[in-house]
Design goal:
mainly alpha, globular
């Protein structure tokens, strides 16, 4: 991604930490938590890798089509899973956005050869920005503390707590907005 290097490293750290927490959530006793956590972990680590500043590491040209294929397969899986679980529609949009960004990175000329045409924001980038901005605002609003009963807080393990899963998705949504803004 192209953008300020300190911001890129913060995005890498945020996405990697989110991916690591999602891996831990995969140990949950709740089956739906495990399934959802796997997709979240893939997104977190994939976003972390994509956000590494280009000045530090530029992947070889063949890496972007591989990246698009991996997230394309994840998009097909999310499409299949969305039949029974509506949350997987969000995974579908997220993985499709990752495919879109990988294809855009593959089409970008090598460093130092950028063409500055100034044609504005592409329609798909704008639509994804609107979706993820709305998702961030909605998820952030859902994190507003609600009254918790003593029995409810004691019975849930830290990996099964829905507010932590929402916080991870919020972090990845913010990361996706930042990545789309740098395109």
């Amino acid at each position: 991604m192209h953008g300020p290097i300190p911001a890129a490293w913060l995005l890498v750290a945020l996405c990697a930490a989110t991916g690591a927490y999602c891996l831990l959530r995969m140990r949950s006793g709740v089956e739906e938590q495990r399934r959802s956590a796997g997709g979240d972990a893939l997104m977190g680590f994939g976003m972390a890798v994509m956000a590494v500043p280009a000045a530090v590491f530029t992947p070889p040209r063949w890496a972007w089509p591989v990246y698009a294929a991996v997230f394309g397969a994840a998009a097909l899986h999310a499409l299949w899973a969305a039949r029974t679980t509506p949350h997987h529609l969000h995974h579908l949009v997220g993985t499709a956005a990752m495919v879109y960004m990988a294809v855009a990175m593959a089409a970008t000329p090598p460093a130092g050869h950028h063409v500055h045409g100034g044609s504005g924001v592409p329609l798909l980038t704008g639509a994804l920005l609107v979706y993820f901005t709305g998702y961030v605002l909605l998820t952030g609003a859902r994190l507003v503390p609600a009254p918790v009963t003593a029995a409810g807080s004691a019975s849930a393990r830290w990996g099964d707590r829905p507010e932590l899963a929402r916080a991870c998705r919020l972090a990845m949504g913010i990361g996706m907005v930042a990545m789309l803004l740098t395109m």
